[in-house]
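[audit] Reproducing an earlier prediction to check determinism. Same input, same settings, fresh worker. If the tokens differ from the archived copy the diff job will pick it up downstream; this log only records the rerun itself.
[audit] input (307 residues):
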Amino acid sequence: MAPSLPASVDETVALLQRGDYVTDRALATALFLALKLGRPLFLEGEAGVGKTEIAKVLSKTLGRKLLRLQCYEGLDVSSAVYEWNYARQMIEIRLAEAAGDTDRGALASDIFADRFLIRRPLLQALEPQADGPPVLLIDELDRTDEPFEAYLLEILSDFQVTIPELGTIAAERPPIVIVTSNRTREIHDALKRRCFYHWVDYPAPERELAILKVKAPGADDRLARQMVQFVQRLRGMDLFKAPGVAETIDWAHALTQLDRMELTPGLIDDTLGTLLKYQDDIGRIRGSEAARLLAEVQDEIAAAARG
């Protein structure tokens, strides 16, 4: 039997912790309310801060099927909701013609039957599942076009879709919906009104350190603290793309594989590509700037140790 939904914010925090997700109370509260009231949760924030991971953790800890719709420019109904299996329909038509069946009305009704329908993630999310309503992840909605965003309004408000040949298909029980956006463009207010909203920010140093202890337990404690403080300083600079939590975790794994216990200017220069993904950013930080930031980090950690 699948686990039940959390009954409080504290239980929501515990649920996420069971999935190795270190959350703050504000995010846990938004998630609890979305689950309790059956509303989609719209998560917005920079890339790499853990928005998509929320849906994965919910699927794992609640024992629900995860249906992921990865958004992109040009995404349409046939890729996101449904399409007809035209090859099988043509075969059905040819077989009917060979059998001498000329009743066009009956044939039209037959080829638009349910067995010829190819279900995409949004339609699958409305269908009953053995383990309960699935987790529907609509990932990076800001990458789609506005017409598709408008199409989602019926799904997110009434949890139903209309197929002209079959009619309206509605969910018996609404799926758990997580919508994410990296804010490369603004999402229309009409869609946001149908969701609970939460901005997922970069974590504070202590929470990021706790995340590293969970996601990269092999990293030395001193090294982990140096990495977190260094990344926090990078985020305060005018970079094209600041490193997210995902990059901090990758860096921790990389330095662990290199069997390093402490940051050095040379080590930072050699591994900056794990943190920064644009050459202009790497060129700006590498060398004297990296050494300066590391010196600040070491001074801060030493001051904290002295009390």
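[audit] rerun output stored. Observation attached for the diff report: The chain has three domains: 39-76+120-199, 83-114, 205-302.
[audit] end
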